[in-house]
Amino acid sequence: MVDLKSILAEKISEKTGIDKSLLYGLIEVPPDKALGDYSLPCFRLSPVFKKNPAQISMDLKNRFTLPDDIVRKIEVKGPYFNMFLDGNEVTKLVIRDIVEKDFSDIGEEGKDKIVVIDYSSPNIAKPFGIGHLRSTVIGNSLKNIFKFLGYNVIGINHLGDWGTQFGKLITAFKKWGSEEGLKDEPVKYLYNLYVKFHREAENNPGLEDEAREWFSKLERGDKEARELWKKFCDLSLKEFKRIYDRLGVDFEYYLGESFYSSMIDETIEKIKESGITEISEGALIVPLEDMPPALLKKSDGSTLYLTRDIAAAIYRHSRFNFDLMLYVVGSPQSLHFKQMFSVLKKMGMDWVKNCHHVAFGHIRFENESMSTRKGNIILLEDVLDRVVELAKSIIQEKNPDIKDKERVAEAVGIGAVIFNDLKSSRIKDVIFDWNEILNFNGETGVYLQYTHARISSLLRKFNERYGSIEYNSSINFGEELFSIAFKLKDFEPVVLKSSEEFEPSLIARYLLDLAGEYNSFYNRYRIITDDYGVSLSRILVSLCVKNVLKSGLELLGVAAIEEM
Ligand code: ARG
């Protein structure tokens, strides 16, 4: 994309002999537009020229002959060398670049690089709660972002399909469950059995022993235990996939925890060989600095989530030889990942430096608790249904004749939930507010979708009146489209930054700013007027805004809508 800072650094470098990359690092966008579009603070040049900064900025000004091709005015304010750009020329540069751009493929950045993303990873036989939504949505967006940058991306769903809870579930199913019960809503049914198990076990500790026995049977490959477990997995997956379809999410691999159960002994051997383990009260542990020890094997011989994660990391490294691996998991698991990374590091697995825990905060509904144990979990599907219903009634009101109402409502509703999740930096808690989620004028998905649809409709109108939209170099954009163009040019740098910080919210914020800039133009000026030249310049900028909005929304996993 057009890099104005680089163009300016080049110009100043030519005129002064100062190193371009030094200048590039110094040029900034001033906090106030009245101070210029770009500014070069000259403090750091002082040692180079052995002069005071104010003198240097004055000298710089004297070397510039104006007007230049893109600089319209220069003002010196003490040590600051402030540049004002020619709006028409810059808009031209930016628009020419974007109009011709194919956003499906900008990626040199990730060429020949492999990134593994572990995301969503819900637990079998537990409803897909709103809590797993964040991992799903953030992980999916990161996947889109890295793909966009040309990476080879491998998405893995690390399903929670192993562990002692399956012993409990089998026990409960055998005691109180039936095939019949699994017919309608199997996951809810299994989950209720699981809740019942915990309730009953409070007065009947024998149940825990039975559960342990069933899990150990499962681990040994007992036929009955295996069959029940497999059934629970299949039923749950079917339900999860229904949700993934609605969210537009998919995975290269479903490799749940059970997949690693056969590698556990070998992994534990490997860890032992590296000489970092100890036995403590019958359990196998790795003592760690500044944190509690990593527990690899309990005294009863059962292994843990952590052990399976260590096995998984080693397996993934040997299979995929990744350059980067991301675990998109809530911040309550920070210690877990710290321990896991420390163990791998102690084992001499140097590549662990490329593994990152991409943590995030909770979703908060007022007055509604979200624990699975207590049995009052908020089901994601219920939330999605309710949002889509709400979207439908709003659309009905605003545009009763719209075709494809169901499809649009689904895209708006789902988009609203996804965007709400991505609009703030991920580590913050997300507030789910029914009054805000579909606000057409708020910081919402529907606001962006609506802006996109509005431009689509303008494009159709332009087309009817003036024919196809063609860029040519003699178009005059004037000054008033400049602030939109100035935003447009930031799209790719923002995407790049979001990949470096694993932060889709940067794109979400950017799109809100861009739409805000465009809509304030739209509210002041007409796009299609009786003047062909004026209309063409405005529609071209609109088209570029549309293309960037569409690409950006798709990176977030939100559908761009043509008509609504
Ligand atoms: N199933 C886990 C949970 O729901 C998340 C797994 C995340 N991935 C991992 N490799 N630990 O808490």
Topology of helices and strands:
Blueprint: H1 4-16, H2 20-26, E1 38-41, H3 46-49, H4 53-63, E2 71-77, E3 80-85, H5 87-99, E4 114-118, H6 131-148, E5 152-157, H7 165-176, H8 186-201, H9 206-220, H10 223-247, E6 253-254, H11 264-273, E7 278-280, E8 283-286, E9 294-297, H12 305-320, E10 324-328, H13 334-346, E11 355-358, E12 363-364, H14 380-398, H15 405-422, E13 430-431, H16 445-466, H17 482-488, H18 491-500, H19 505-524, H20 532-556
Parallel strand pairs: 4-5, 4-10, 5-6, 10-11, 12-13
Antiparallel strand pairs: 1-3, 2-3, 7-8, 8-9
Helix pairs in contact: 1-2, 5-17, 5-20, 7-8, 7-9, 9-10, 12-13, 14-15, 16-20, 17-19, 18-19, 19-20
What is the count of DSSP helices, taking H or I runs of 4+ residues? 20
> Which value, in Å, is the CA radius of gyration?
29 Å
Terminal-residue CA separation: 31 Å
Regions with little confidence, pLDDT below 50 for 5+ residues: 369-374
- Give the biggest beta sheet: 5 strands, parallel
Shape: globular
The kinds of small molecule bound in this structure are:
arginine
Structural class: alpha/beta
Q: Roughly what fraction of the amino acids lie in strands?
A: 5-15%
Binned, the helix content reads 40-55%
Secondary structure: number of strands: 13
| Residue-averaged pLDDT | 94
Describe the strand arrangement of the main beta sheet, using strand numbers.
6-5-4-10-11
